[in-house]
Fold:
Amino acid sequence: MKKGIAEYQVGDAFDSYMLIKSASKGVASNGKPFLTLILRDATGEIEAKLWDASKEDEQTFVAEQLVKLAGDVNQFRGRLQLKIQSIRPAQLTDGVKAADFVEKAPISPEELMEKLTEFIFEMKNPNLQRITRQFVKQYQEGLLTYPAAVKNHHEYVSGLAHHIVSMLKLAKQLIDLYPDVDQDLLYAGIILHDLGKLKELSSATAPSYTLEGKLIGHIPMMVEEIGAVAKGLGIEGEEVVMLQHMVLSHHGKAEWGSPKPPMIREAEMLHLIDHMDAKMNILNRALKKVNPGEFTERLFAMDQRSFYKPVFTNSYRED
Amino acid sequence: MKKGIAEYQVGDAFDSYMLIKSASKGVASNGKPFLTLILRDATGEIEAKLWDASKEDEQTFVAEQLVKLAGDVNQFRGRLQLKIQSIRPAQLTDGVKAADFVEKAPISPEELMEKLTEFIFEMKNPNLQRITRQFVKQYQEGLLTYPAAVKNHHEYVSGLAHHIVSMLKLAKQLIDLYPDVDQDLLYAGIILHDLGKLKELSSATAPSYTLEGKLIGHIPMMVEEIGAVAKGLGIEGEEVVMLQHMVLSHHGKAEWGSPKPPMIREAEMLHLIDHMDAKMNILNRALKKVNPGEFTERLFAMDQRSFYKPVFTNSYRED
Amino acid sequence: MKKGIAEYQVGDAFDSYMLIKSASKGVASNGKPFLTLILRDATGEIEAKLWDASKEDEQTFVAEQLVKLAGDVNQFRGRLQLKIQSIRPAQLTDGVKAADFVEKAPISPEELMEKLTEFIFEMKNPNLQRITRQFVKQYQEGLLTYPAAVKNHHEYVSGLAHHIVSMLKLAKQLIDLYPDVDQDLLYAGIILHDLGKLKELSSATAPSYTLEGKLIGHIPMMVEEIGAVAKGLGIEGEEVVMLQHMVLSHHGKAEWGSPKPPMIREAEMLHLIDHMDAKMNILNRALKKVNPGEFTERLFAMDQRSFYKPVFTNSYRED
Amino acid sequence: MKKGIAEYQVGDAFDSYMLIKSASKGVASNGKPFLTLILRDATGEIEAKLWDASKEDEQTFVAEQLVKLAGDVNQFRGRLQLKIQSIRPAQLTDGVKAADFVEKAPISPEELMEKLTEFIFEMKNPNLQRITRQFVKQYQEGLLTYPAAVKNHHEYVSGLAHHIVSMLKLAKQLIDLYPDVDQDLLYAGIILHDLGKLKELSSATAPSYTLEGKLIGHIPMMVEEIGAVAKGLGIEGEEVVMLQHMVLSHHGKAEWGSPKPPMIREAEMLHLIDHMDAKMNILNRALKKVNPGEFTERLFAMDQRSFYKPVFTNSYRED
Amino acid sequence: MKKGIAEYQVGDAFDSYMLIKSASKGVASNGKPFLTLILRDATGEIEAKLWDASKEDEQTFVAEQLVKLAGDVNQFRGRLQLKIQSIRPAQLTDGVKAADFVEKAPISPEELMEKLTEFIFEMKNPNLQRITRQFVKQYQEGLLTYPAAVKNHHEYVSGLAHHIVSMLKLAKQLIDLYPDVDQDLLYAGIILHDLGKLKELSSATAPSYTLEGKLIGHIPMMVEEIGAVAKGLGIEGEEVVMLQHMVLSHHGKAEWGSPKPPMIREAEMLHLIDHMDAKMNILNRALKKVNPGEFTERLFAMDQRSFYKPVFTNSYRED
Amino acid sequence: MKKGIAEYQVGDAFDSYMLIKSASKGVASNGKPFLTLILRDATGEIEAKLWDASKEDEQTFVAEQLVKLAGDVNQFRGRLQLKIQSIRPAQLTDGVKAADFVEKAPISPEELMEKLTEFIFEMKNPNLQRITRQFVKQYQEGLLTYPAAVKNHHEYVSGLAHHIVSMLKLAKQLIDLYPDVDQDLLYAGIILHDLGKLKELSSATAPSYTLEGKLIGHIPMMVEEIGAVAKGLGIEGEEVVMLQHMVLSHHGKAEWGSPKPPMIREAEMLHLIDHMDAKMNILNRALKKVNPGEFTERLFAMDQRSFYKPVFTNSYRED
Structure:
């Protein structure tokens, strides 16, 4: 397998493909324009400067463009930098695709879709099932490629579907322990709760906020769309209001973006499950990066805490 | 003019009509059921007990029922109470109507409607004008009768229209002072901002929260409805998003129920104008009840402050 | 089965046993002392006044005393009250015991103990297992009878063990979903996290705070005791510190009583599981008391929210 | 008209006058002292280094000194910098004055003074009018030149008078809408509310905080001075206390610097008007700098929000 | 010595003098007016109803009036009440004075004045000493009789002087430990810091807030007055600003009423000493009322905490 | 006396001993490793780069190592830097010791120990005295060398003992003023309150947090240890609980790390004394660094305030 950018060191020569994550223009001290490129592959990122950039360069080397580069890896202010010797846009004949240059969920989209279908199949309430099916059908492509968030948790390709399936599994277990919960409402709420992000964010691989995303936000957009879909399907009544309430309240508090807090049991559960799965995703990925006896970096979404990885635990695990 | 309930004193005999604001059932120490009625007319409220209430009484004497009563006014624990000697539902032939038994805006619905029409007529952007017209047409009855809120400010019949027209006048003056403001967007935002309350509250004269009002709230409901109305009229584009953003953000902060804060100038103005008109309505009405040299009662919506009415000011007013 | 106090109505005669929950002395307008007794059985509570109470009465009728009473149920300010005709302490020969007059967990202590033993048996780390066993052995009686809290959640006899076993089941499922978690540390943390309450509270059936409970609190007391028990067993090292940290941090934040927030993965999970099981216990019990289409009373430990019980859900449940 | 500094680009030669906004001393790597000068004209600022600065240079090139410079504009770390070839203090014969090198209100001091005089003329209460006149007379020069604040809003020459006149216009309109308001008290409060800044800040063109400004602040200083002025004019009674209260409470809350919140109607209005005019000033100036379809920079005094400038609005404006 | 009201019990006859603390009018169920009197002596308070009160009674029996009463002590809703048989205003010939019917500082005004004079005598800075002397001379009567606060701490006659002298003693000790502190500034700040309360409150024995007290508050009033007194004495310069800053900042934080926090060492000390002496006064008085082994009532000004009085401590005290 | 590092200037030659405070590794642009050393003596710190550092260098030049250096002082980005010409570890024969290269309390450890002994000797309660003696004996070395904190206050060698003795002196004065305080409990609490820091921090001269310090913290560790010591000495009862409570609550509030707030008088005093002595230490040291008429730097532990040093005060001091 090819070496990822995370494995390069100072002095290594580079001759391979990368995806442009962002490109911004500057003016050098000699008065000539240059481009600062952030390049990525599935393992990480590196910065590169393209000096004496022409107008054409500016239009060619933009976010989401795949490029072929040659150059050397050196260091600037303690961070690695790629010194570009040649750069060109990737072509169809190069046989590379953007999706291979970004981090992805540990489960394939096909498998995630299969799991999702199983859960929908288990639903018995026809109204909830039909609305859910309609959304999954309509948004299938985005649902299987978008991240669950721009940063913090599940912030990788297929992160949204990965998060949803993980939450559904957790929900299934909880329904076993607390059997009064309405399974269908909880499943529907989990599947739909973050679908508004498909309109809030601009793309799966280089997501930024859309105008509607910034001024309305994924929660009210999704509440509106559930109303429209239900009307389209001729479904009325309490289920629709409950489903809108599930989505509306899933951030838990007004100051976290939910104008109403959870006011039905399933909405409270949705909030707790979302919270737990997001935290476990953050924690597990951060702890994987450190050795036993060390602390992780400070984790923004965990109140800036560092977590310790104990030394003793390995000795007693079976595997 | 007939004497209002606010003018009765201990010992007065009563023989007239009242509107039941609320009715609740209790069990007396003799084991028999009774009803506690809160009765109101346009000047105020009084409590009455209907002892030995039958099943039929329970079903007859309910909120929003007009009744004819005879009895005496006495006092219980420092508050006036009506001792019922006879009570019956008002009949068509009595020639009384509920609307005369509640507090009303100081301007008539007709005049408010006329003002509203003038402002809409001044709008030049056809998209904003058409959406606004459609809402006013569709909701005209509620718009002209509902209060602006259940308590705190403009909490009287036609309070919503009164608040809207007062805000529009203020907006007009502000546009003179700050001419960069988009008049049409501001007018449309003012007219629509609280229309969701027509679905959030159950009625104009005895308003309580509907299920949808409690679980979704007037702001997301209205955002959804603007989307649906625009689609129905075939209007798309920035104006629709801006109008939804105006409504969404008009409470100003997430913890006050707006998942997005104002992010366009006109949304900020809508929030400030709403705030100012609500505060002036509260203050003016509270200060009317006290004499110069006194403090008002503590005002909940003004951070529990009491306001002082200065003595000196009268002497220099022209009127 | 005997009628519980919750089933009595105004006018009913009473002749049975009750447990005194609290007794407080007052002086009547005739200058004579009386006792206000709060009496309970497994279904609820009722107030009673014992007039002209002698010194001996004061010493006899105290909290946790079982009594035999005869009298009538009447009403005072809208609440039921028991008018005492005769009262005497229950005697051995009466064949009643306090434990039958309080609310209890829906699972028997024996079954809870069995479950607990199974989970401990699954632990592989000998240090964690030995410390846990030692605590369970030493505190077995309290562990199986104490409530998990004085109010809010699992506030009934055996509530602590019920809460622990419910959390252990949830933990088992979560370890399946997130297999990096250290099972033994999580199990040990769950079992020990609230054992300090056995010293913080005075008794299982009429719990109040002890002096040490008020001035030190169950968390630091338990941290201290884990240190002492480990030393007694000759166990040293990281496991002990981690276990102390689990207990110390399980309230999640300094302002909720944990001087350190969770800083290892298992501590974070302990906190999340504790939170989820407590909330589900509160919600499920509150929703059982209302009919579909109604809201629960405001729930103090759920940020004063009322929860709605949907109407639609019954129709699609299998049972 | 001469080119302003904001219009210069990398490579341009410079030969003109600038005002020194601040000067600070450093030591170069060769051990010799240098000065970092921030230079400004009415359009903006630029940094310049004066190498090998002598003791005399240090004393000559200080804040508020006008200088004649020749040099070249180049770039350092992405920002323009002026490379000095020659520099000397401006002389009387140069015919330049500091006032032309700073940002100014869009209305002339003369016109602002005229407006102010008109409003004072409208006042009918002789006590309030006399106190107000006395302050305006005594502080006229500062009032017409000082900014309203060091940053955030109206932070330009004559900003204070511009803010006051703008608030007075707004007040006049509001009094039309809410006629119970005492015009004279509101006018007097608006004119005096920020005059304490003339003592809090050191100068109109390069304002910094005075010792008294830092340790006492403009609000208590102004309350004290109203007391002294009223005593000097032989005026006593409620008007004086009300006026002191207006100034004291105009920041609205203790945490914003007002030890008492507004407790009379006119004080509440003063606070709301101050708030509205400050926000509109910030918003209008920030939106002028961006094109339709863009967001402004984050605005510190607007809770760090960025504001969007809609695209659609231009098409329907008459002008 | 005469029996204080705190020593009376149900059934005792009463025939003595009391001070009216407050009087409020009500209307009885028979339609006749009555007065609710709160009566006090130096040991405590009791409520009494004066039935069938005439207009003259209303004007006679008002707050701060000394009265002679005869009647019986009985009980209403668990609290003692005085049943009035006869009541008349006290006369000069009765030889009683209001000051004997209120709680007083444990040290006499004469002794407090002597102590105060000693501390002023120790001051060496003539400016600070002259300002301080001037205030003490001007306000001597109020200073020696007013409480330090309406409630919470030193809320008794001469409480202000008691608090000041106690703080001065503490300051003297602290200057020994931290000799860099400026003694004169600290002494002057302590003596003046709360003198504004003499204008904020209406009287020494039945204090309520004056209009100026409510709308301006004692801190800004005192800052103003220091300015006026210094000007009157022809004193200018830093000492005056520092003294104003001491008073202005002594509450420590904006949200506690100080628009500027302490920004000189002596101001910080003044705040800390004020805080410590107030807390010790509250604690010592609350702990005196309970027995060893008990908790005090919840103390409002100590964050609602109850304090425990240990049992063990007495055995090792020498006295 | 030798010149301290704080007295060196650009261009000075250096040839003397320094203590390494911290050492971190980097990679230069030529790909070779280097060490960034922070070097300190009792007067201050300086940075130095050791280029082309070998593996051996990395292991030799570590925190807490004394070194002999020769080189020149120059400047990099406005800060002094030492350019190393030669460096070697200090040897026994060099006759230097680490303790001379760090800031120290102004009182010697011997004198501090003597004072401490006197205070313990004054204690009369044998239980409290024995526990205190045991701790002082056991921890004597750390107690006399550790700082009281890593930063903010008393952050120098012997800072802990200096803080304790200063607090004891303050306590003695306060007991004079408020004689109800239990001297022995207060003395014991002061001496023990921060001893947990000896386990929380790694060393006296280069303190960092230990694992136990990070995950448990000094307060719960000390509560545990008081329990263990008391058990070891066979002491039981209220004194032990009170002492644990003193330590537990001394930070005053849950959000500052005390799970219980002070609930006995002596605990409240301990908190207030700790607070006052820490603040005076910070203030006095910050004010020493500035001239009259200047402000100190912003002080983190004083809510980021800058303090002003008045000009007038010197003239009236006797010394």
